[in-house]
Amino acid sequence: MKLTTRIARVTLGLLAASPLPTAIADPPRDYRLEIVAQTDGTLTSIDDRVSINNQGWIGFSGVQSGVSKAFVSPATGSYQVVAQSASSDTYLGGSINNLMPAQLATRKRVSGPLFFAYIFNTSNNSSTLVSGTDGAVVSSVLGFPDIDDEGYMITAALTNSSTNAGIVWGSNVNTRYVRSFGPTSTRLRPQLSNTDEAVLRDQNGRILLIDYLVGADEVIAPAPGNAALALVRPGVSADAHAVGYVTDVGQGQGVYLSVRGTNPDTSAYVRYTLASTADGYAFPDEQRVGVWTRVNSDDSDYRFAGAVFAAIKDGVLGVYTSSVSIFDKVAIPVGPPVLVMKVGDVVDGRTISSISLYDPVDQHGNIAVLAGFSSGGTGIVRATPRTHILASGVDWGVLSPWHKSGEYFIHAMLPLIRAADVVYLPLDDGDFGNIDTVKTALDAMYARMKPDDRLVFYINSHGSGRTDENGPGDEPLIQIQDDAHDESHYAPSSQDESICMSKTILHGKERWTDDQFADYFADPSKPVWSQVDKLFVLNQCYSGGFWNGGPADTTGDLSRLGRVALLAGATESGFAKTVVIGVKSNLVHALERAVPGVVTQAGASLANLVNAVNGELANFSTTPGLIMSEFPSEDYWDVPVLTTEVAVGHSTSDFTLTFGAPPGPCPGDFNGDTSLDDFDYFDFLNAFFANDISADFNGDTSVDDFDFFDFLNAFGAGC
Q1: Which tens digits make up the pLDDT trace of 306-322?
Q2: In this structure, are strands 316-327 and 31-38 parallel, antiparallel, or unpaired?
């Protein structure tokens, strides 16, 4: 029988047994969802006022075994009782702060229309009465309590013998009435910052930020023509730098984020539109706009403000998030709102039928929602960011503020990579401790991570070499550039590449080598790192050597990790380039100027990088990982981003990207795309019938039947 006939039969069998690749499924959302607590045989109801703190703990109240109780939930499916009422009492709402141990503020119905406000210590369930009846000042607490990180609570209350609605602020040592806002029909829903300020919507529909110590207020948004268009649950960040709310400022109802300190001339709030009726959104009443911010140091030019809100889009109620990124008082809204969850989503086998937001977001962007389920009952759904960005830079003293390149990086990448968990880490200008500082920050992120999350790690520093720590063979002998003033001068080196983590540039006391860096993420005590997509953006000299710098059995380098990609600011042998304008490196300039769709030399685009980080399909590549290096240092305004243009003797490397398994032997992967599928089979057939030397599968320098059967055996064995 002729070989061609045998091949035809084998091909038909393969096609019958192995279907061709199917359409790619919808990419996963930027948040993972889980039910924290739900009504069951004993927990029969949950109040809709649910809150979350920075440790991910959730505070709420409900009825269990016929008794009203206040709860905290430190973990999924686990909740503990903080307070248990007498049979005639009822707890309503729960606001949890970030103290350790945390405190929970709630309202308690004592009898009839009479309510008190309490603060509970979650460690020992001890309570403090903040506000009860106080003659003409406080007749009854209306509810919607909120508590700050100093243990002070604010709540709405009936005042002046139940004829007016106002707000009351206090703790176990000091309670005071702040202000009355008119008739009892006024719906006051205050929320506290940690800076003696609270936000609310007043009886006229204005959004006010009130200093509750002195009673002074600042108008964040004026009253719309119809007061009902200003919805009643505005939110404020912990530092009061951002206020979120829904109102009509003359262009239709919208959700807005007012951010302090972004005006170049004043410290006044500047309003940014996150979504509006013009975009096809509608906004349900009684839903809080949750707000969080990132201001990482007093001298930082970078700020990040995010908002969580409920909106109806295409007739479906959902929870959305959006944000504003600010650098040097230049702010940009980060793209259209991102859907977190919606009615119709299935979470842990339950279909969401309703959504309610009260105090919904913590400082890391974790979101807590009370959801109704189509099968009956309610539950608390926690949404956790899947993408975590950590950007840092070393302060080199006299070269400062180059270290702020990390701020630029975040500002450049946030419009492209969706993330809520965003940390900028300015490093100390001393000679010791920066490696531990970065590891501590990574450890904190690791504690928030789950399998299939994504890490984007950026650092801008100096790169250097260090004696090969793993003996001969770990680092090959190469020629490296060693004279910044003479680009033709190279010298032999077999050193480990390293990140210089101290201001002493020439004799760095702290050098994080490629082996040590990879070892951190290969630590067997942190197994989730192997289940996380990791994009490393290393912006220093010789950073390309952090990828596969040695032979296949190298004990170092990022290429031995799974689900990993590298964006390097230099080749293994060369210097990273900088520019003289501003404090940005060329790498950051390229990222900032690139937009999805800019084509690179490998036929990919920056969109592929972004999509891979966002969990979508990137272009197939021949090498697991991404290496871009040596962005041209001159005339960068005229050089197309990420191209093969050569400047000052250097050119970019190939753009290749995949988050796959660690590279390893897989003979059946004929086309080298790191996956074994029918394309490998047909690619081999094409090469075989063309008598192409690439089909010499057994390496005996000839293409014959033995190559075909050897390939077939390898293909059938899998990888």
Answers
A1: 999 999 999 999 999 99
A2: unpaired
